[in-house]
Amino acid sequence: MRIDVWSDFGCPFCVIGKRKLENALGKFAMGDKVEVVYRSFQLDPKAENRTLSTQQLAIEKGMSVEQMKVKQAQVANMLKKEAGLEINYDQVVIANTFDGHRLAHFAAKEGKGAELTERLIRAYLSERMNIADHNVLISLGSEMGLNDCDVAQMLKSDAYTDSVKADITEAKELNISGVPFFVFNNKYTLSGAQPEEVFLNVLNSVWDEEKKLEELEEMNRSNGDDSCTDGVCNV
User: Who is most buried in 40, 164, 166, 231, counting CB within 10 A?
Assistant: First the structure.
């Protein structure tokens, strides 16, 4: 089974959805048979790299400072409870995530896509790191075991730009307007940070369907002689 996950690094609900899926996979009997592929999505493709105080952020969102603080506290509590992640809203570093997504594609080629995705999320949400800064990305890549020189060279080039854009284009074709968004076996979709039980139910349903299809294909192969039975001719 394959699960494609569209997400962005600065999205609190993406990390909650990620945790819910991971917990469900831990309880799923065939969890080790599931491939999870993280896909690129940008909530704000035009984001400029800057630091904002809560007051500045409130003004930009058309809210009072108190309203913004209440909203931030709600999200922070939810993130800590549901994902075990501390979020730091003091002097938020707004970063364009495009190069981070390029690095995630690079890491995926090295078998470290999931680990790098997790590290970028923590860097953005908890550690107030500017993940648009190439030096920061090189450092994070190094933590995950990626070669510094290879990462630096990749970031200086336009490598994986097409891969990121292809993910975003596919998201548009699937009418994805918000993340996280999950696609199971290129067929079934799930939107949002759903409860763990929902993920587990979908996993079981998709797996059962997959096994039934495999059994049907095996039956067809076993009957693949030149005989005609029950009004059906096998060629």
Answer: 40
Torsion of CA 173, 177, 181, 185, to 10 degrees: -10
Q: In degrees rounded to 5, what are phi and psi of residue 144?
A: -90, 5
Q: Residue 169 has which token pair?
A: 């284009």
Q: Which of 130, 124, 135, 114 is nearest to 22 (CA)?
A: 114
SS3 state of residue 43: coil
Secondary structure of residue 220 in the 3-state scheme? helix
User: Do 121 and 62 touch, CB atoms closer than 8 A?
Assistant: no
CATH topology of domain 2-218: Glutaredoxin (3.40.30)
Return the domain boundaries, the chain: 2-218
The per-residue pLDDT for range 90-128, each reduced to its tens digit, is: 777 899 999 999 999 999 999 999 999 999 999 999 999
pLDDT confidence of residue 234: 46
Q: Are 228 and 234 in contact (CB under 8 A)?
A: yes
Q: How many CB atoms lie within 10 A of CB 101?
A: 28
Token duo for residue 187? 């067929």
**Stretch (H or E) spanning 113:** helix 113-125
40 forms beta bridges with: 7
- How far is Cα 210 from Cα 94, in angstroms, rounded to an integer? 42
Phi, psi of 193 (to 5 degrees): -80, 80
pLDDT in tens, 122-173: 999 999 999 999 999 999 999 999 999 999 999 999 999 999 999 999 999 9
Q: What is the pTM of this model?
A: 0.88
231 or 66, higher pLDDT: 66
